[in-house]
Design a protein that fits this description.
Shape: elongated
Largest sheet: 6 strands, antiparallel
Distance between the termini: 50 Å
Structural class: alpha/beta
Number of helices: 13
Oligomer: single chain
Low-confidence stretches: none
Radius of gyration: 24 Å
Length: 351
């Protein structure tokens, strides 16, 4: 049977969400953290670490599909500086969390928000809008700033002691750090972040992907975060930078992808994902030459001998070997996406 809890909390893994849970646990309430995961955020592998270090229970929940659809449809409350839909992000997570209340026998929801802490999603008006849009106004408690907020049904009923909640406000971190010290946390987590939609380079890759494919799926967005990313018109090529990228990339390859590996020399793996039809033979050779240019030993051998380098190209179960001269100045002209494309795309599609 599913264990029963008094409350479900949004658990990002940042200090605020952990302190919000511990504040209610101090009142004898049982709280389960919901750690939602999408292509853009989430560290479910740390749930065990958080349990050991901070004494909290947590489970992971995948919201990749609904989150991606929200992003592609255009978040109703708009984007932040880059592609971060912070208000609608919180709405999506609270909406899902509300549906899970009966499963765990829980009666209310918890977040670690602090009024005034973040400019887009934690202004007073934004907090009110989030509660209203998610339909959680009567079941949401924000323990870290509760005394500065209207009293909730949970406090009125006596289930939660309002006097033992907090009235933290603003961007300062002194109350959080003092609380972490009081709990004896030996490792203090940084403010939760980790969302790549708040970063310019990642957002530029996503925008380039959206412009070409229209509606990328969640795994496309995952691939767009691996290694080195270059584009040539409708052609998308990913190459690895480190060994751990090789392992990640191997797990993302699809049967329709072109996989490039230099024969006889150490080299990165290259993956070309068709977004608009199959690649021409010329495009395959062009990509092979570009991938080979990142094998230093292959480049040195070719420069000394004048011989081309052999690159194995696999697609599904089919495989061929092509001969190319390593070159980054190829006819297709591979380039990286630029952060300025994000602003252009937002102006074109969202005003």
């Amino acid at each position: 049977m599913t264990k029963r809890y008094d409350a479900l909390a949004l658990l990002s893994g940042g200090l605020d969400s952990i302190l919000a849970m511990r504040t209610l646990m101090d009142q004898g309430l049982s709280v389960l953290g919901l750690h939602f995961v999408s292509p853009f955020f989430g560290k479910p592998h740390l749930l065990g670490v958080w349990r050991e270090q901070y004494g909290i229970d947590g489970v992971a929940g995948d919201i990749s599909r609904e989150y991606t659809n929200m992003l592609l449809d255009g978040p109703p409350s708009g984007f932040g500086k880059w592609l971060n839909p912070c208000i609608d992000c919180k709405v999506a997570m609270l909406s899902r969390a509300k549906k899970l209340l009966p499963e765990y026998g829980a009666s209310f929801l918890v977040t670690g928000e602090v009024s005034g802490q973040r400019p887009m999603s934690q202004r007073k008006d934004a907090l009110n809008r989030i509660s209203k849009k998610a339909g959680v106004r009567d079941v949401l408690l924000r323990p870290l700033c509760a005394k500065g907020q209207p009293i909730t049904p949970m406090e009125e009923s006596g289930l939660v002691d309002r006097e033992r909640l907090h009235d933290w406000y603003g961007r300062g971190r002194k109350p959080q750090m003092a609380a972490a010290q009081a709990y004896g946390f030996t490792e203090v987590p940084t403010p939760a972040g980790g969302c790549v939609l708040t970063e310019g380079p990642s957002s530029a890759r996503f925008v380039r992907l959206i412009r070409i494919k229209g509606r990328p799926d969640p795994q496309d967005f995952v691939l767009a975060q691996v290694g080195r990313q270059v584009w040539a018109g409708n052609h998308w090529l990913v190459t690895t930078r480190r060994e751990r990228d090789n392992e990640l990339l191997d797990g993302l390859i699809r049967p329709a992808d072109y996989v490039f590996r230099v024969k006889d020399f150490p080299s990165p793996t290259g993956v070309g994902r068709p977004l608009v039809g199959d690649w021409s033979p010329e495009a395959v050779l062009d990509a092979a030459a570009w991938v080979a240019s990142y094998s230093s030993k292959a480049v040195r051998h070719s420069e000394i001998s004048g011989d081309p380098i052999q690159v194995r190209v696999r697609r599904g179960t089919a495989s061929e070997v092509v001969s190319v001269l390593p070159n980054r100045e190829t006819p297709l002209g591979w380039t990286e996406a630029k952060p300025g494309e994000v602003r252009e795309w937002k102006e074109e599609h969202h005003g």
